[in-house]
Amino acid sequence: MAIEENIPIISSNLASILELSKGQLLASLETLGQPKYRAEQLWRAIYREGRTSFEDMTNLSKDLRGVLSQNYSIGNAITVLSKQSADASTDKILFKLPDGELIETVLMRYEADGHRRGRKTVCVSTQAGCALGCTFCATGQQGFRRNLTTGEITEQVLTMERLARSEDEKEIEAGTRSRGELQGVTNVVFMGMGEPLANYENMMEAIRILNDPKGIGIGARHITVSTVGLVPGIEKLATEDVQINLAVSLHAPDNETRSETMPVNKRYPIEQLIEACQYFVKKTNRRIFIEYVLLKGQNDTPLHASKLGRVLKDLLCHVNLIPVNPTGEGPYRRTEYREAQRFQSDLKKFNVPSTVRMEKGIDIDAGCGQLRDRALALEN
Ligand code: SAH
Ligand code: SF4
To answer: How many domains does the chain divide into?
Structure first.
């Protein structure tokens, strides 16, 4: 376990170049009298090569490197804590932003199996805190702090990309991987702290940057946005040109049960939410992931399962059943695996496909918002 504590916090006062879209970067270099291809080179150096300083970008002229160093930083987040799970599958980083906000990012490694290549998935945060107050969620209990900027979102992936690539390089040196297999981060899920669709523009801009084939190049099909169920945001996402995956946190099959744990349900009740999901499927022809956190005794009985089957039977979806990761003071307990399987077979009777997910990184609190809690406790 690597823990970096007590490192000095030296915050850069420079503007982060990661805040710029490619168009803005082009314009910015143009004002410095640079040709267009310089912006492409710079973009590549930042996102593909993962350079951490302008001085290392030796394909740029010395003068340009100097000007860039004086005006920009390559991100302003500082790693204050980094932990790895005992099985080395999961890393979690706690970042401090220039205004002192703390956010967390998780890297999950999945070995190749018979069907799929190995992959590395980054779970990013989109807000410091969250305004939606779901009762089982540590972030929700902390309240809303602020939206993250586009650069603060992409920087999380960029940092994990550097880590993932350095691991690839080590494997190549050791002869256990060929150069053609260099892949870095393969997937991004917007499932960290905050509600992505409540920070829509910054999230979308970050997705465009991550998706750019000349940069990190994460395919749209390898990007998943998880929402608590903000109906207008889902409808908007359905019409975007980048076709990413959508996960919807449903967590209950009826309005009464859902409103008990998810205040947002009073604003966008289940009927409206499912209608928005149908619209998304119609527009994109894509299957939706329905997230269902199993809360023992609260939403996991056979009656809940059959109600859920009825709600979802006509929707092109796949349900992820996730036994809750209990938060510090929260009243919820995990549904046992056997019970989760029973819930799954009840759904099957309605032809609703599902998978029981055992969460990764439980031993490092990689569930939701808990490392932040711990770090705050360390600081007090
Ligand atoms: N705000 C978005 C994305 C961030 S939360 C959303 O709610 O979908 C990512 C996922 O973690 C959501 O499905 C959320 O319901 C789930 N989650 C929150 N707290 C959890 C907990 N204690 N145990 C398991 N999953 C949790
Ligand atoms: Fe916010 Fe998602 Fe947590 Fe609900 S589950 S409080 S929407 S981060």
So the answer is: 2
